[in-house]
Amino acid sequence: MGFKASAGSLRSKMESIPKPMWMLIVFSAIGGFLFGYGTGVVSGAMILIKKEMNLSTLWHEIIVSATIASAWLSALIAGPTTNKYGRRYIILAASIIFLLGTLITGFALEKIMLLFGRIIVGLAIGLISMAGPVYLSESSTAEHRGCITIINNLFITGGQLVSCIVCGVFSGAPHGWRYMLGLGALPCVVQLAGFSFIPESPRWLVANGRVPDARMVLAKIRHPDADLEGELDVISAAVVDAKNQKATIREVLRSAPARRALLIGSLLQLFQQVTGINIVMYYSASIITMAGLRNESLAIWLAAAVSSINFFGTFIGLWLVDRLGRRFLIVTSLIGSAGALLLLALSFQAASVFSPPVDVQSNSTACGVNTCGECVKEEDCGYCFSGTTYNFHNSSCVLVDHHSHHKLSLEGDCANSTLVAENEVTFAYDWCPTEYAWIPVVGLALYLLFFAPGMGVMPWTVNSEIFPGWARSTCNSLTTAVNWGSNLIVSLTFLTLTETLDKHGAFYLYMTVAIIGVFIFYFFLPETRGVPLEEVEDLFTGPLLVRSPSGTKYKPGFENQE
Predict the structure, then answer these.
(1) What is the 8-class DSSP label of residue 356?
(2) Phi, psi dihedral angles at 392 (to 5 degrees)
(3) 174-188: string of b/e by CB count within 10 Å (b at 16+)?
């Protein structure tokens, strides 16, 4: 009964959204799709690019991270630009920039051109990741705000899923990565066509003295019987208060409620990244191959299957956000994610402990090791064997030619002279054959199943709500920059961490961070469910702690939390 009632409540809430508002939601959320596609496509594409362009580990990390670095930079300038030019024009500009970047990457002739195109794509992603949620939040009512902002996240995860499917489809095609990267231009064209007819945020219009225009926009996107004048009065009062304060970083830090909201919002965006989500999204195919699955096309398709869990898990967040609240979903999401990260760490550690042996020691190589795990850790060595991943023999550890990854070293004889051709053996450059390769795939799936409904969507939802109107753009710009900055650090260091701490050590580190996040958000994150935007500031006044360990409430908005 509870499930049916909750599903019916969600359905009725979605049906109560006016049709013109749905047009606004869909065309603005296409920006979220671009965000998701632009970040998700790199997981599958880089497997093929690394092989075709002979990229080193450093260049692999640089190309992946360049997008994030430029997104961080553009997120910093998104606040003042959206305040000056409006949310709508910045979203349109981001679509044009994204279109340019995807065309450059699709036609890239060498790694420098590819890097340049990914930097341009990142600029667009940074703008749209900040402007999109703010635009949707400011255009929606308090009743619908939670589910509407999650729809934007649904488009993000949908974009990631579609990118993985596209990668799977073109994984066997010659230069398939060009199609993977270039097809991102199609949704850009759709958004440019549709968003040209979408109005500006009514709150931005009021803030810029265009009250008649704001009234016209509200009349289009609200129900006919809605109290437009009452809503305009509330918005206008908030704008008057906002004009008394300048939206500078100094003023934000001088205001205790805004400062606390900024801290919580920044921590949400920080922990979304440092608990490993974009390691899963950017490197999922690489993680699967690291686990011992050597078929690149199959690894890309498995990454797509894993990504589908992220997409469908977002529906769980959509269903529960206004039933259980933002805070409950965030805390439980981190607990489940920590458990999944523990499984990933244990699976990679088991693969290392029970690593297959080196059968043949060759005097022609300098790799004097006894197991595959020891072999692939060596910078200049790789594991060579004949047979299948589950039934192999004649293994050896040979020197690696770093100028031709995945090819046998000319100095190594690959097991022994009875293997007369390279194509009769398998060269494992950064992985080991194992019959337990499926366990990390299960770990990735469980991670996304827990992460998607909570930490996947709630940081963006909460950050679109918690800041006072006068500081909303500035604070969202800062917290979005924190997201992309921490994203950059994590993505730039992941492959290096797997080499220095081993694969299991890296996932133990992410698990520890997730556990720390559980305690921080349990004690310091207030609930914003059902609170009008103009009243959310009240949640960040008074005592800093949300509740004591015994459950004593300190903040409004928790009355129905238990």
Answers:
(1) P
(2) -120, 165
(3) eebbbebbbbbbebb
75 neighbors 126 (Cβ within 8 angstroms): yes
pLDDT the model gives residue 123: 93
pLDDT at 69: 85
Q: Tell me how long the chain is.
A: 562
User: d(Cα 501, Cα 205) in Å, to the nearest integer?
Assistant: 52
CA–chain centroid gap for 400, Å, is 34
Low-confidence ranges of the chain (pLDDT < 70): 1-15, 142, 146, 240-247, 278-300, 303, 361-366, 379, 387-393, 400-424, 429-430, 533-534, 542-562
Separation CA 55–CA 456 (nearest Å)? 31
Domain 17-198+245-349+437-540 CATH class label: mainly alpha
Would you say 478 and 249 are in contact if contact means Cβ atoms under 8 Å apart?
Answer: yes
- Residue 72 is encoded by which pair of tokens? 């961080």
- Sorted by where each begins, the domain ranges of the chain are 17-198+245-349+437-540, 355-428
Residues contacting residue 488 through CB under 8 Å, at least 6 positions apart: 65, 68, 69, 72
List Cα–Cα distances, 394 to 391, 416, 480, 534, in angstroms.
11, 7, 52, 70
73, 75, 67, 72: which is closest to 98 by C-alpha? Answer: 67
**Six-digit token string for 2:** 């509870």
For every residue of 170-189, DSSP letters joined together read HTTSTTHHHHHHHTTHHHHH
Percentage above 90 pLDDT, the chain: 10
**Which parts of 366-501 are beta strand (E)?**
381-387, 392-399, 425-428
CA atoms of 42 and 283, how far apart (whole Å) = 8
| Residues in CB range of 331: below 8 A, 6 or more apart | 454, 518, 521, 522, 525
| Beta-bridge partners for 510 | none
The Cβ of residue 243 has, within 10 Å, a number of other Cβ atoms equal to 10
5 vs 10: CA distance, rounded Å: 9
What pLDDT, in 10s, does the model give residues 364-399? 456 778 888 788 777 677 777 776 655 666 777 877
- Residue 11 buriedness (CB in 10 A; 0-12 / 13-18 / 19+): exposed
What lies within 8 Å, CB to CB, of 381 at 6+ separation is 365, 366, 367, 369, 375, 397, 398, 399, 400
What is d(CA 450, CA 442) in angstroms, rounded to the nearest whole number? Answer: 12
